[in-house]
Structure formats: structure tokens, C-alpha cells
Specification:
The complex is a heterodimer of chains A (about 110) and B (about 160).
Chain A: E1 2-3, E2 12-28, H1 31-43, H2 48-72, E3 76-88, E4 91-105
Chain B: H1 2-49, E1 52-53, E2 64-65, E3 69-78, H2 81-93, E4 95-96, H3 98-121, E5 126-136, E6 148-158, E7 160-161
Parallel strand pairs in B: 1-5
Antiparallel strand pairs in B: 2-7, 3-6, 5-6
Classes of the chains: A alpha+beta (about 110), B alpha+beta (about 160).
Chain lengths: ~110, ~160
């Protein structure tokens, strides 16, 4: 499965547009991590635990999007976009969307 | 006197703690089921219509369209007390919060349907350049810790005659 965030694929031609595919996930950090992050706030710097958490969550959202694309019979997802939002204190939503298409060598 | 205060405290806890969670569970569940049913019905209507949504910016070559019109849909949704209770528990251990995912998906489907209905009223058959924004509403002393989010989706609707 080809996943890119441009509108067209060089050297390939879109033969069918299957429509929007999307995936989301909401992750909460656990209390321990929250505490460590609180400590980190004193000295500053990267919050590695949160970076990992969000990376993993974004991957999950993308995987759900890819599953949808697969169900539609697509071989590529174009123009992929991500949005992130804090749903409540300590929980974030990661959302990925794109257009599922069928491409062939041109 | 202290017995009385203690009893008052227990009553307070039962009514405002457990009571609100139970109320949230029953009312929240009923509205969720009704909403999901409504969403499914409205989505079924669009499945028959063949309305294509895409987040690509340009229409494929070979499609002829009119000038296009802006369409959008938005919704602000809140979680109920029971889901908030579950979400709060989940926050102790971290990980995926399924109850909140369901709320956000409901909000997104509702907003998307409102956008699609607008496109339908304008006799359009594709929505291009789809974008989505989510934002948290509130954050004041009353809404602190509560889940209240806005989902806004938008795009450009076209009337196209398809060559492909």
C-alpha cells in the first residue's frame, strides 16, 4: 500500500477514486508518566514518554485508515493529512485521513 | 450532630457521585443508541446516492464541473458522566480510551453528514478538498476535566459529470 501526502504519484496514473478513508484513536497517558512529565517540566527538555506515546498512537490511527482503504480495494492512499487535539486533560486524539485510490503504471 | 453531617455526606456522595454516574449511564446510553441508529439511516441514504468525498485539491483530468460551492458541517459534543468516569479510570493506567473514541466518531459522522446534506441540497455529487478540524471547547472552571469537543468538517462541493 502506497501512502503519500501528495495529490498525485509520479509515473503512476489514478484510475479510480474510492473516496475518503479515515482512522482515529484516543490515547491517555498513565498517571506515572504524567508525574514524570511534571518533574520534567521543572528542567525542561523533550518529554520522551509523550513523544513515544503520540508516535505510537499516530501509527495506530494510520493503520485504521489503511484497513479501511484495504477494504475498499485501494492500492494507494493519497493526500494524507493528520490532525491532533486534546480531548480532555491527559488524553489526545490522533486522526488521519486521506483519499483511497487505485493507481496503475502510466 | 456529627452523625447528621456524616449522613449528609453519604447522601451527597450517593446523589451527586453515584447518582449522576448512573443517570449518565442510562440517559447517555439511550441517546447514543438513538444517535447511532439515526446516523446509520442517514448514511444509508447517501450510499445509494454515490456521493464521493475526497481530500484531493484538484478534480481529476477529464471531469467537468461547475464552479463549486463551500459546504461544511459542525457539531459540539460532550461526554456523559458515566463515560467520564470510565475515561478517568483509564487515565490511571493509560492507553486507548474506547469510550472517548466512540464519542468522537459520533461527532465526526454527524458533522460529515451535515456537510453531505448541505451538498445534496445544492445538487452536488462530489465533495473535494475535504478538511477536518477538531477543537476543545471550554476549559473554564465549570468545564475543567470534562470532554467537550467541536468537530468541524468542510470541503468544496461540485456538480460533476464523470468521464472516468
Amino acid at each position: 500500500m502506497l501512502v503519500i501526502n501528495t495529490e498525485s504519484v509520479p509515473g503512476k496514473e489514478i484510475v479510480k477514486i474510492l473516496g475518503l478513508v479515515q482512522g482515529n484513536t484516543i490515547r491517555a497517558k498513565h498517571a506515572g508518566r504524567d508525574f514524570m512529565a511534571g518533574l520534567k517540566n521543572i528542567v525542561g527538555g523533550e518529554l520522551t514518554a509523550y513523544t513515544e506515546l503520540l508516535t505510537e498512537a499516530r501509527r495506530e490511527a494510520m493503520q485504521r485508515m489503511l484497513n479501511q482503504a484495504e477494504e475498499l480495494g485501494a492500492n494507494a492512499v493519497l493526500n494524507v493529512r493528520f490532525t491532533t487535539s486534546a480531548i480532555t486533560a491527559g488524553a489526545a486524539e490522533l486522526y488521519a485521513y486521506g483519499t483511497a485510490v487505485v493507481v496503475v503504471e502510466s | 450532630m456529627s452523625d447528621f453531617l456524616e449522613a449528609l455526606g453519604i447522601i451527597n456522595f450517593l446523589v451527586f457521585g453515584v447518582g449522576l454516574i448512573l443517570l449518565g449511564y442510562f440517559v447517555g446510553r439511550a441517546t447514543e443508541i438513538a444517535h447511532l441508529k439515526d446516523l446509520t439511516e442517514r448514511e444509508a441514504h447517501f450510499e445509494k446516492m454515490d456521493l464521493t468525498i475526497s481530500d484531493l485539491r484538484t478534480l481529476p483530468a477529464g471531469w467537468t464541473a461547475d464552479e463549486g460551492v463551500f459546504v461544511g458541517g459542525q457539531v459540539v459534543i460532550a461526554s456523559d458522566q458515566f463515560k467520564r468516569f470510565l475515561g478517568g479510570l483509564k487515565k490511571l493506567v493509560g492507553g486507548q480510551v474506547g469510550t472517548y473514541e466512540r464519542i468522537m466518531n459520533r461527532a465526526r459522522r454527524e458533522a460529515t453528514l451535515r456537510m453531505m446534506e448541505q451538498a445534496e441540497r445544492k445538487n452536488c455529487n462530489v465533495i473535494w478538498c475535504f478538511r477536518q478540524e477538531t477543537s476543545t471547547v471550554g476549559g473554564g472552571p465549570v468545564s475543567r476535566g470534562k470532554v467537550m469537543a467541536e468537530v468541524f468538517v468542510y470541503g468544496t462541493a461540485y456538480k460533476v459529470s464523470r468521464a472516468v
